[in-house]
Design brief:
Two copies of one chain form a homodimer.
Chain A: E1 5-10, H1 16-27, E2 33-38, H2 41-49, E3 55-62, E4 66-67, H3 69-78, E5 81-90, E6 94-97, E7 107-110, H4 112-117, H5 119-125, E8 130-133, H6 137-146, E9 150-154, H7 156-161, E10 166-169, E11 178-186, E12 199-205, H8 213-223, E13 228-235, E14 243-250, H9 255-268, E15 272-280
Parallel strand pairs in A: 1-2, 1-3, 5-15, 7-8, 7-9
Antiparallel strand pairs in A: 3-4, 3-11, 5-11, 6-9, 6-10, 12-14, 12-15, 13-14
Helix pairs in contact in A: 2-3, 8-9
Chain lengths: 286, 286
């Protein structure tokens, strides 16, 4: 008997993460997968690190709101995880409320990223409503059920699951708003790219806060014509002005060149962590 | 009769931003200043851009949670504002609740940045409590007044203003947790450094998403021995993988060199915005 795989995601049911998890499970047709909701991204990745899960599906970056800090910080801290796959999910937000009369709406609940992705619509259509961040887009819908002066931003699917009226669709500021998700497992091997890898994600700190320290690192990529599809700085949590850098490299059919570059990087970085090499799955199109 | 200056900040009364605004107003002893609370950073900077305010005081970066995205995004978008001063405020968080018995606490309310800055304490002391983000640290205190099973993370001063019991102090993960604030005014001049400037803040987009584009920019700084005290990437909001870069330069007594570098930058960037040159005020020590 095959043991069922356990895949953790940021719940509850009705979040975009759950939609992404469903798509990944459908793609893995052969193997049965149990989807396990978590209330935080950090909690989900920690459960994976101590083998309570086989896989975790976490958001890494949104086209409007940028990197998902808790994913990057957890991968740096936990040190035992590797990215296996990536895919982009289109994020189409709907406005959900009991009444279609927007002038009666006093408060709008949603996840901070979703509120950020709909700022122009909110400022234009609901300039006087208070914006209240909650832990997930699905959580915001609970408030809609309780009061006629409350609205929420969530997916069409989540509104349908909660049997709540959809007042407007596609309210996100950017037409092609999408979120990149990573499928993460426990570490296997060194995370260096193979012939099937399209990207390698790494993070590093620099040896000293000196002019040109980051330049030396970028020079290594440039010398080898390696393109960066993301570069992101985050505070090292030691002091203001001290940073970690998170970089996604394009492998571009040359895994040996990227592997050689990763070796060269150890000489010009302080701590270097390989988050894994992976390919993009075509799961985004609906 | 002198007209009173109007300084906007992220309210309500009792936030760290209000504490920073109070310190700035005390430092500006001579001139009377009215402090005007706003419910969002974007709203505060927009009011300044259309001359409803004379100054805005906004958080720019925290030593644990990193850049304040809405400040960076608003400065890029509004295009008419200049940073006048900067200073660092120590951020010492307290846990506020009606009961000292932590095992009775079910929910903890605070601003997402404050929750992020106390993750280790929360995971150790309140592992089963739900963490609820709210719009400001002061807002979270309202829930404490309403229920004995609720806690909030806020400043000692805010707890005292609301006459609520302080259960624990200094619960932030990093002992020297601090937030950098910027005092912003409408644009005057070109924002280039003068002999009194210690820092210049800029933002830019690159001409194409090609290997080495960022490298060329960093090479300009390195050639001139200009140190970067911050480098931050944010999505351009056009597509995944397309970035803006926010950089703080140390002027280091050489304003002419930095000014010449800013001119050279126009050739290697797509859009370049000068957020202003300024000095640090010694307002941080209590």
């Amino acid at each position: 008997m095959t043991q069922r795989q356990r895949l953790g995601y940021l719940g509850p049911v009705g979040t975009y993460s759950e939609e992404a998890a469903q798509r990944y499970a459908q793609w893995q047709q052969g193997e049965p997968i149990d989807l396990v909701p978590f209330s935080t991204i950090a909690g989900c990745l920690e459960a994976l690190a101590i083998a309570q899960l086989d896989l975790a599906l976490v958001p890494s970056e949104n086209s409007v709101e940028g990197s998902v800090n808790s994913t990057l910080d957890s991968l740096w801290r936990l040190d035992k995880l590797h990215i296996q796959y990536a895919f982009d999910l289109p994020i189409l937000h709907a406005f959900v409320a009991q009444t279609p009369r927007l002038e009666e709406i006093r408060t709008v609940y949603s996840h901070p990223q979703a509120l950020g992705q709909c700022q122009r619509w909110l400022q234009h259509m609901l300039p006087h409503a208070q914006q209240c961040p909650v832990a997930s887009t699905a959580d915001g819908l609970q408030y809609v059920a309780q009061s006629a002066t409350v609205g929420a931003i969530a997916s069409v699917r989540a509104a349908q699951l909660h049997q709540l009226p959809i007042v407007a669709t596609n309210i996100q500021d950017l037409a092609d708003n999408c979120t990149r998700f990573w499928v993460v497992s426990r570490q296997q091997g060194n995370g260096w790219p193979t012939t099937s890898s399209t990207h390698t994600s790494i993070a590093f700190s620099l040896k000293a806060n000196q002019p040109g320290a980051l330049l030396k690192v970028l020079q290594l990529f440039s010398d080898r014509q390696i393109n960066l599809s993301r570069i992101e700085s985050r505070p090292s949590k030691r002091a203001l002005g001290d940073y970690l850098f998170f970089v996604d490299l394009e492998v571009n059919g040359q895994p040996a060149i990227v592997a050689e570059c990763l070796e060269a990087l150890t000489a010009v970085t302080d701590v270097l962590k390989i988050f894994g090499s992976y390919q993009f799955l075509p799961l985004g199109a609906s």
